[in-house]
Amino acid sequence: MSERSPRAAIGFDIGGTFVKAGRLSPEGRAEREEQLPTPSQEGPEALVRVIDALFRVLNPEGADLSVGVGCAGLIDAGRGLVRTSPNLPLWKDVPLADLLAGPLGVRPAFLNDANAFTLAEWCLGAARGASSAVALTLGTGVGGGLVLDGRLWTGRNGFAGEIGHVPLMADGPLCACGARGCLEALVGASAIARRYDKLAGGGASGPAGKGITPRGIAERARAGDAAALSAFAETGRYLGLALRGVVHLVDPDVLVVGGGISGAADLFLPAARDAMRENLMHPPELAPEIRPAALGAAAGWIGAALHGLNPVV
Ligand SMILES: [Zn+2]
Q: Which of 133, 176, 297, 312 has the most Cβ atoms closer than 10 angstroms to its Cβ?
């Protein structure tokens, strides 16, 4: 990472439900956080108004600050274009950086949200000090990012690290991307609910597993529900298979697991660790540590702010 400039920065994380924003001090300290609902079913003007309102709250003195924005989907970071985003389904090829430059008085730097998460955990969180790291976010979707040889690796088109759509099982369950057997279709939130429903004998979690969240299943597991414990252990095994692939491909210093489902890490990480180490070509003690993410839900806006300070793509 290049030397950090002595400025504060504001980061935005455009999520499906909320736009989270915060101010990062020049020393990398999260100083203040705010959020407003994402106008996900509206056009760009509504989101520009939301981001502008958050910016004014976080920068009341009108200081000269760096600004970064993270968003899910296909982001053209160099041109500040949101090509497509699951959080903004009506948008196509929107030049959001240009639209924000006027109201904010500064052109923000853009980054995919999983890359923002990875950057934050690498610079200030669980992978701090590592020269290589692979970070995963587990939630409704499964995202990821790569740090290779001391820099964020985003690939030729900016979507490197999309581990959620690495195929793991031929003819496996259907994924949101349209393919079958992706990691996301095996360890994402709906996969865990479906697995629990099946293990509990069907119908226990509502129609087709839609009535219960991973958080609810985790509560049942901690209360001793055998089906809930098995659902997380099986999920951990699939995650571990994918991580074994990652280790063979990248051999990183550290693996970081975050996202909403990582609140249940104690229930699936032991199985993931075992599956990762099993049949590793190298002695298992050479496998990297799997660390829970350290920055929680703030990682998205913190990574965007870091990118605003020192654009990495
Ligand atoms: Zn997929």
A: 133
Name the token pair of 308. 């605003």
Give the distance (Å) from ligand 1 centre to CA of residue 181: 7
- Which pLDDT tens digit goes with each residue over 214-246? 999 999 999 999 999 999 999 999 999 999 999
Beta strand segments in 55-209, E: 66-71, 74-76, 81-84, 109-112, 133-138, 142-148, 151-153
Q: Which two tokens stand for residue 150?
A: 């001391």
**How far apart are alpha carbons 313 and 76 in whole angstroms?**
10
Crossing angle (nearest 10°) for helices 299-309 and 113-124: 80
List, in sequence order, the alpha helices (H) in 132-225: 183-187, 189-199, 214-222
Is the pLDDT at 206 greater than 60, yes or no? Answer: no
The pLDDT, as a whole number, for residue 89 is 93
Residue 189, amino acid: A
Instruction: Please give the distance, rounded to the nearest whole angstrom, from the Cα atom of residue 239 to the centre of ligand 1.
Output: 14
Does 210 have pLDDT greater than 60? no
Cα 172 to ligand 1 centroid, rounded to whole Å: 11
CA-to-CA distance for 177 and 186, rounded, in angstroms? 13
Instruction: List 167's β-bridge partners, or say none.
Output: 182
* C-alpha of residue 74 to centroid of ligand 1, in Å: 14
The alpha carbon of 163 and the centre of ligand 1 are apart by a number of angstroms equal to 9
Give the number of C-alpha atoms closer than 13 A to the C-alpha of residue 16, restricted to the C-beta side.
Answer: 8
Looking at residue 274, the DSSP 8-state letter turns out to be H
